[in-house]
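Regression test attached.
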Amino acid sequence: MNEQDFKIVFTGPMGAGKTTAIAAISDEPPVSTDVVNTDRAVFDKALTTVGLDYGRIAIAAGQHVHLYGTPGQLRYRFLWGILGNNAAGVIVLIDASQADALVQLDAFVEAFGSGKRAPVVVGVGRSDQAGALALDAFVQRLERHGLTLPVFGVDVRRRDDVLLLVDTLLCLLELGDIGRKIV
Amino acid sequence: MTAVAARFGRIAAGVAQRQLDALALAAPGLLCAVLLSADGFEVASLQTDKGSAARLAAMASSLSAIAAAIAREAGLAESNRMIIESANGTIVLANVPDTSPPLLLAVIVADGCVLGRLLWATTNCCNAIGRAFRE
């Protein structure tokens, strides 16, 4: 990683789309640590990340953003601090169709410093599904905690949606967080 | 009994527990052993409290998955085993062959257990658990 590069972390609960988001924008095939998911009661999907995801995108000549994804389950919390170390910013992905989406938002935003250690941008997925919470509910929830963070509705399968989150994070860094640049 | 142990059934979990007991005899200095699913759930454990077993299961699954990713990145076949050596002990993380869902065995021994003997005992234990779970 050269001194112009940034490290950002994608985090959020199981099934929020962290692996998919990194795969959607990475310039090269991402490193994946997915294994068979035996916890179908919590989220019904075949595979789950238990280590990390890693990808990389170029944002200028010789300058890259390094993309790290965390596991979402609480039992992997020990990795959140390791992967979050030296991160210039954090993208929290939340699944609006999950019943505990607001609690998950609280937990992940707080675990990654509530935007005080490094900027945080929130991406809310599946908000068009029946019973899903509206985007405004997430904004209001953050405001109740005294937080004003950028919140976007996203489809993490769409490259442009994920790039919007990354671009927003980079704008926040340019606006006043150059001290958090990886050197 | 964990959810995964419940899924395999009490008999299979009991068989795994007996194999871990046999491992303790075959590997002198064994501090603890945990059989876990690849996604980090304890199936059976030996000489450890449940909180420690759950944490070790999560960490072992992460390390094993990262080791597998490194092996793939290096163009090698899927990794079978990972060894962590410290000044006062050794940890072995080994894949249990051909189980569905995939299982791993994490073994921690104190300094003094000969590495070759530990690997031999761990491999035998994994093979026995694999056979038992396939049956």
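Expected vs. actual: identical. The interface with chain A takes residues 3-4, 7, 37-41, 54-55, 57-59, 61-63, 65-66, 68-69, 73, 100-102 of chain B (CB under 8 Å).
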